[in-house]
Amino acid sequence: MISRFFSQGKRRFEDLSEQEILALAISSEEDDARIYLAYADGLQAEYPDSAKVFSEMADEENTHRNWLIDLHKNRFGEEIPLIRREHIQGYFQRKPDWLVRPLSIDKTRKMAEEMEAQAQHFYQEAVKRCQDADTKKLLGDLAIAEQDHASLAHRLGLKHVPESVQEMETAKEHRQFILTYVQPGLAGLMDGSVSTLAPIFAAAFATGDTWQTFLVGLSASVGAGISMGFTEVASDDGVISGRGSPIKRGFAAGIMTALGGLGHALPYLIPDFWTATTIAILVVFVELWAITWIQHRYMETPWMRAGFQVILGGALVFAAGVLIGLA
Known about the structure:
- The chain is mainly alpha-helical and 327 residues long.
- The chain has helices at 2-6, 18-44, 48-76, 105-129, 133-149, 152-160, 163-195, 197-207, 210-235, 246-265, 273-298, 303-326.
- Helix 7 (163-195) crosses helix 10 (246-265).
- The longest helix has 33 residues, at 163-195.
């Protein structure tokens, strides 16, 4: 029922005339060429070799479009009906370039392969709907071409992006991910998890009231998250350091800071004090282990060193909170 409601006003592919099928193929090839050019533009600054791959993909799509236009002129004249993917019920859709950014090498190549596979399926179905010999021949040839093009990104990658360049681009992409997301996120998680230990457990042991402790933890976590996020944004615009967008880093730092504090604040929604406190302490151990794992996995810090730093710091802050709360 829902799919029927949303497809109202759309044409069924089975109801299209041969002229409309050609018009749909023309607009689809044009859209795909623009998408590949957008991919090339998005990759140009950081990965110029891979950008060439998608520039050639766009050239291929424009060539197909020109063939289809020539056939349409010969059969139906100069005026091409306006029919696009979104006009057809159940027809595959393409995501706009701005919805899939930031672009990564692997993601764009996989999307290109998926686009070519969908185009191949379209031409195979279109051949079944056409009777004209020239139209069937061209659509069949394009189906075969799209089948070959499913690996075009890979083949062009071998041409423009040899293995040594791929390794360099992959390393650069990984480093950028670390600088933009992992590093500020890890700093936020450490700050949120460790710095809120003292106020939360101090409030817990001073009041013995789980609700009041939760409110202290909530305010400390949210406040620390906002502060950490704005500090990250204001501290570095990313232009000189190459750490990437300050907005992305700010969100990574702010969200992880808030989550780090909320992890051991949420158990105090449980009315029983000792049950809540026991669960909160267990959550703290999980948080500290997660910080240690991230440091080892992404920052390449040895296990022993990462564990010693995190656990020692967390234990000191926790002890300070308990002692202050019992004073």
